[in-house]
Amino acid sequence: MLLVKIKKTLPRFALDVDFQALPGITGILGPSGSGKSLTLQCIAGLKNPDAGHIEVNGRVIFDREKNIRVKTRFRKAGYMFQHYALFPHLTVKQNLAFGLKGRTKKEIEEKTAAFLKKIKLEGYENCYPNELSGGQQQRVALARTLIREPDCLLLDEPFSAVDPDTKQYLMNEFLSFLKENFGGTVLLVTHNLEEANLLCDHFILYGNGKVLQAGPKQDVITRPESAVAAKIIGCRNILRVDRSWGSFCTIGGARIAVGIGKEARYLGIHAHYIEFADNADENAFDYRVTAIHQGIENCLVTVETPWFTVEAFVPPREIGSVLSGEKKLVLPKEHLMRLS
């Protein structure tokens, strides 16, 4: 487990975060400049927080008040950079051995041989990074990080430089390798929701240097607490509430049933939950379609009512009926999210 409670002030930015990350992969999501990478740098010891406490598996590696500041090389925090940072002048074997400085020659030989087998690159030990594919480079970078037996892994947008055609393959390979070879805590910094959804067990949402929300992935996706959090997890429809009372609210002139819950400043609903129905008694509205964007599996349809505009995903085979003007736009009450 990783416990982080730190503050770090820069000339035009302040980081103030408090969270814990369990074993498994935790994704840190948020817009650029929200402090995600800075957090990893503080955990790794590349930057020193101004205040706070960092603990890995019960071992304190930073505490400002107690003047504890474990040096980077002794923190057992494996850091993997965006572009893998393999040494171009070193072979695959030499890159792996670089993290084993101070070990005996026999131990270095045994561990590099073992990891070459794990990453299925036996026979490539004398190759240089520019002779490897992107997937092979990624495996070498991850193996170089794991060969030091870290207590936690810090991954800073490891797929950001990968073209879309190979990203899915690399993510699947990465997940498989990680599950087989590491059982500790992983922090994955990303701004890509699709990537985070595939790889992560838990989410931490960042905004302007603070933690907006944290928890199991599905809880965060289905129950974001604020409009900002909802936007980060990909909610396309965030509607400002004019008035909220009991189990109802109004948006423009539309009265919407939302069920019992906290007072809402906004309502959110994911695009795939919006329905088009012939008959509906609740939260059903006349509409007109103003735009259609054709996708592979779904069409993204922009729909305007007299009071608000939303986006909905519609299967191509149903577009005709949605355009017919014979249906109602329906916002299912059970999928409406009350947001602060």
TrEMBL record:
Sorted UniProt keywords: ATP-binding, Nucleotide-binding, Transport
| SUPFAM superfamilies according to UniProt | P-loop containing nucleoside triphosphate hydrolases (SSF52540)
The answer to whether the entry has keyword Nucleotide-binding is yes
**Record carries keyword Signal:** no
Query: GO MF annotations for this entry?
Result: ATP binding; ATP hydrolysis activity
Ranges for domain ABC transporter come to 1-233
Family matches, as SMART domains: AAA (SM00382)
Q: Which domain of life is it from?
A: Bacteria
Cite the InterPro entries for this sequence.
AAA+_ATPase (IPR003593), ABC_SmlMolc_Importer (IPR050093), ABC_transporter-like_ATP-bd (IPR003439), ABC_transporter-like_CS (IPR017871), P-loop_NTPase (IPR027417)
PANTHER family linked to this entry: SPERMIDINE/PUTRESCINE IMPORT ATP-BINDING PROTEIN POTA, SPERMIDINE_PUTRESCINE IMPORT ATP-BINDING PROTEIN POTA
What protein name applies here? ABC transporter
Its taxonomic path starts at: Bacteria, Bacillati, Bacillota, Bacilli, Bacillales
